[in-house]
Each structure stands twice: as structure tokens, then as C-alpha cells.
Amino acid sequence: MSNFYVGSEVGQLKKVLLHRPELSLLRLTPTNCQNLLFDDVLRVKQAGIEHDAFQQLLRDNGVEVFLLRDMLSETLDDPEAKSWVLNHQVSSLRYGHALAQDVRSFFEEMSNKELASHLIGGLTVAELNSSCKSPTLGVMNQTDFILDPTPNHLFTRDTSCWVYGGVSVNPMAKAARQRETVHLRAVYKFHPLFKNSSFHTYIGGEDRNYELSTIEGGDVLVIGKGAVLIGMSERTTPQGVENLAHALFKTDQATKVIALKLPKLRSCMHLDTVFTQMDIDCFTYYPDIMRDDIACWELTPGDNASIIFTPVKDGFVQSIARTLGLSKMRMIPTGGDLFEAEREQWNDANNVLAIRPGVVVTYERNIYTIKSMEEAGITVLTIPGDELGRGRGGARCMSCPMDREAI
Asked: How confident is the model over 284-338, as pLDDT tens digits?
């Protein structure tokens, strides 16, 4: 077994990848935030303070925290890695030949730390300050982006997800997030922490167009005992689920995938915005979405690398219980009355990160759901989220576990 293995959602968390909000969030404006998949602009300094509190809480609980910008900067210290990243980010097809040469030269002259910041945070025409006569540059304004920022890197859960003994470097559904995959591919391919480690790469290990097979980590729950629960949402397609299941079965890393059909709603962007695991037998859920009549399938390995698809007749809760060998499960709904529950779900009440069985991290603002969790015997550790929460992602969204014990 390598140093990177995620055997469950709730076993002791050992290593996690986070991204502290910085330059990319400073680029958000009321004009561009919708295109960059944010509902609003954030107070960046305050968001950073709140993120620091999140990091410290994890460290205080024995979790080793890795930060994406640092990991990317250290990756770029390898000349081969730096060339690989720039080959994938700066091309004549993106800029035209003349401007591509200027952008490439500009990036190559930066320190690797500064380059990592701009790969994540973007680059404007004014910052490039090019004298290139290319029409590509000629039609742009000084405040236009030569390279768009990637503020959604804040949500490290989505771009890559570790499932048992391997990682899926995910083909992202939205154009605003697709460059994120290049950064994670580079880190897992070249960073010293991973370069000499043995693990499977289920998806994203090669240059190819994944077409309609998109998948994002917020839809992927490693529920343990060889099983994976995946939501088919506005970001994760059935094709993506089937291809990930095929890779998991081929490498003998999983024996079952449970696939759920989710509504394609902004409030239910990923499965983990309405359903997460808090203990071996305990889940938090949003009842308006996670009804027992939602369509559900069990995928299991068949002969000759085929997959057997079995529609679930008795509901997803029974499917999970059966898979985990549980006689019953504790299902904790979003707290409060109808209005309070809708508000708290919007503020990520159901998007909790388990540190170990029965101990979870969530935003302190979700008081009604926290009360319900504590009454069910869950230990709730809270973090501030007045600014971070406006990005529409909670503790689970903002974390990519890379090493976690099985159950």
C-alpha cells in the first residue's frame, strides 16, 4: 500500500489537500463572478482568515495539511514539469503563434512561486505588458484576462478525488474549471511526494478528450468496504460514473458502485451538498432532495471486464445499509423548520468533513443542523464561514483527502 489511500469517508483522516483563497478570488467582480461559477464576490482577506482557522483545526486534530499553491510551486521546480504545464496551458491554438511566444516567455521568466500564483490566479493584458502586434491581443482590453483565474480551486474536493488505492483526476464539466485538472495532473505526475509513490490513476492520467464523461469529486463518496457512492448531478454524468466504475473494477480497488440520480439544480450541485457521512452508520441529508424514491443503480463487476447494472428497488438507504452490512442507519436531516432547513442547506449544513468516526467539521452558522447532529451523538467541530460559505461550499467541498483509514 502506498502513502496515499482513502479507504472510507469517516476513518481517521491523515493527509488532506486544501487551497487557501488568494489572487483568484481577488479577480472576482460582480461582472465576471457568474461566469466563474460564483454567486457573489467575497471579502478575500476575511475568507483567508476563515480558511486559516479551518487549516488549524485540522492540524490540531492530527491531520497533515498540504496547500495546493505550494504543491504546484514545488512541482514547477522540476524543469520537465514546468515545461509540461506550460505546454498544456500556453499554446498557439489558445493565443495564436505570436502571442503564445510572448506569454510563454513571460511565464518562464517568473519565479516558480509567482508562476504558480498566476496559473491559479490568472493573468491580465496589463500584467503581460506585451508589445506583440497580434490581432488576438489587439482586440483585448487591458483588464481582460490572458489567462483566466481559477477561483474554484478553493474546492479541492472536485478536481481530483482519491478512491481506495488510487486517484481520479477529473474531467470537469464547466469550462471555468477545466484548467484546474492540468495543475492536479502535474502535481500527481511530477511532485516528489507522488512521483515515487505507487498508486492507480483511474481517470486523467493521459491526454485525451473525455467528451461526455465528466465527473467531479463532490459527487463521489467512498463509503467503505469496497463500495463507492456516486451522484449523477449537473456536473457528473452517467457516462463518467460508468467509466470510473470500470477503472475501479479493473484495478480491483472497488467491488460496487452505487449510482444515484440527482436533480440538476444549483442548490444541489453535487451529492455532498445534500448528503454526507458522519459515522459508519450515520449520514446527514437534505430531505427535499434525498428522498428514498430517487432512481438508484448498483454497478458490480461482470465477466470479461463488463459491468452488471442492477436497478435498486428498495431505495438508496437500504442499498447503502446492505452494502455496509448494517441492520439500520442513523439518518439526520437538515435542522430547523422548512425555511430554516432550506437556508442551512444552501449554507452547506449537510456538507460536513469527517475527521474520524463520529467527529465532523462544519460551518458554525448552521445552528439547527448542528443541534440535530449533536443530539444524534455526533461531535461537531465548527469553523467560521461568513465569507467562505458565500462560495457555496463547506468543509467537505474545500478538502481533498489523500490518506484516510478504512472502516
From this structure: 999 989 988 999 999 999 999 999 999 999 999 999 999 999 999 999 999 989 9
Distance separating alpha carbons of residues 190 and 184, to the nearest angstrom: 10
Residue 307 and residue 258 in contact, taking contact as beta carbons nearer than 8 Å: no
Q: Which residue in 176, 241, 168 sits closest to 204, CA to CA?
A: 168
Backbone dihedral angles phi then psi of residue 37, each to the nearest 5 degrees: 70, 25
Q: Which residues are catalytic?
A: 397
Query: Closest by alpha carbon to 120, among 84, 150, 143?
Result: 150
Cell 514546468: give the residue. 82
**Per-residue model confidence (pLDDT) at position 253:** 97
Please state, in angstroms and rounded to a whole number, the distance separating the CA atoms of residues 407 and 12.
9
User: How far apart (Å, rounded) are the C-alpha atoms in residues 147 and 131?
Assistant: 17
**CATH code of the region 72-147:** 1.10.3930.10
pTM of the shown model = 0.94
Low-confidence stretches of the chain (pLDDT < 70) are 1-2, 26, 28-29, 34, 36-41, 266-267, 391
- Would you list the DSSP string of 135-168? HHHHTS-TTSEEE---GGGG-HHHHEEEEBTEEE
CA 87 to chain centroid: 24
Give the class (CATH, top level) of 5-71+151-404. Answer: alpha beta
**Residue 28 near residue 151, CB atoms below 8 Å:** yes
Please say whether the beta carbons of 258 and 271 come within 8 A. no
Cell numbers 447532529 label which residue?
Answer: 373
Which H or E element spans position 182? Answer: helix 180-190
| Model confidence pLDDT, tens digit, residues 153-206 | 999 999 999 999 999 999 998 888 899 999 999 999 999 999 888 999 999 988
Q: Given the C-alpha cell 467541530, which residue does it identify?
A: 381
What is the domain partition of the chain in residue ranges? 5-71+151-404, 72-147
- The whole-angstrom separation of Cα 200 and Cα 183 is 18
- Residues 361 and 189: their CA atoms lie apart, in Å, by 30
